[in-house]
Design goal:
By secondary structure, the protein is an alpha/beta fold. Helices cover about 40% and strands about 20% of the residues. The chain is built from seven helices and ten strands. The strands form two sheets. Strands 2-1-3-8-7-9-10 form a seven-stranded mixed β-sheet, with helices on both faces. Strands 4-5-6 form a three-stranded antiparallel β-sheet, with no helix packed on it. Strand 5 (about 140) and strand 6 form a beta hairpin. It is elongated and about 90 Å long.
């Protein structure tokens, strides 16, 4: 009887120790993942993340379906960091983001005026060509290299992080050639923290060129990392 009771106690102790080990491992994993997300996004639990939305091209005051999906992706990222969310339009927001991490969504060509300002001031090595450009409409030029848009076939987007003038917290800038590529860029961000850390020299400031191939087949989920363009994007005369 005493032996059976001892075996029972040893079994319970082993189960408790095993459960504790699993709990500690899961807690450690959660902490590591949280720190990874915090490093890439630049937000901390308790922050209020600012999401700056764009207009649908040619329709001021309206928002494209894919830009709404991009906003949802940004909100999911924010909530995964235990942050609150505030949404404003690029046309209405002026000044510094202050102590609020900012997600600025949309291209600079009439969709989001704040994106245009960010690019002009902070990413001088980047040019977005107009839709009616005779040779390469909507092409993104980075450091002299053109990345062309092909309707229904492929599109590109920039995913950049930097600290804007007067800001205490970083800006995550998402500028695609289309609303779908904006959606793709934030989908990539939410799923690729480790890939980003392995690619960039510093998570304090970076600029990545993303490609969305086979748009009709894979949509935003087909997004891939084309290359790190940090060095040329932030340089004058790049």
């Amino acid at each position: 009887m005493a032996g059976a009771l001892g075996d029972l106690m040893l079994g319970l102790l082993a189960s408790c120790l095993s459960g504790l080990a699993v709990w500690l491992w899961q807690r450690g994993k959660h902490t590591r993942e949280l720190r990874l997300r915090m490093s890439v996004v630049g937000a901390r639990p308790g922050d209020t993340c600012l999401i700056v939305m764009s207009n649908k091209y040619g329709a001021p005051g309206a928002t494209d379906h894919h830009d709404v999906q991009a906003m949802i992706e940004a909100a999911v990222v924010s909530h995964s960091l235990e942050c609150e969310v505030e949404v404003v339009r690029g046309d209405d927001f002026r000044g510094s983001n202050g102590n609020r991490p900012e997600f600025c969504i949309g291209g600079p060509l009439g969709a989001n005026a704040r994106s245009a300002g960010h690019i002009a001031h902070t990413l001088p090595g980047v040019t977005f060509h107009l839709y009616d450009h005779p040779e390469h409409p909507l092409a993104i030029e980075v450091g002299g290299a053109l990345h062309r848009w092909s309707s229904g076939s492929e599109a590109y987007a920039l995913l950049a992080k930097f600290t804007a003038p007067g800001g205490e917290r970083p800006v995550i800038l998402v500028c695609g050639q289309t609303a779908l590529s904006n959606h793709a860029a934030l989908y990539f961000l939410r799923r690729s923290y480790g890939r980003i850390v392995d690619t960039v020299a510093s998570t304090d400031r970076f600029c990545l060129l993303l490609k969305v191939p086979s748009v009709r087949t894979y949509g935003h989920q087909g997004v891939v990392l084309e290359r790190d363009v940090t060095d040329v994007a932030f340089q004058h005369g790049a």
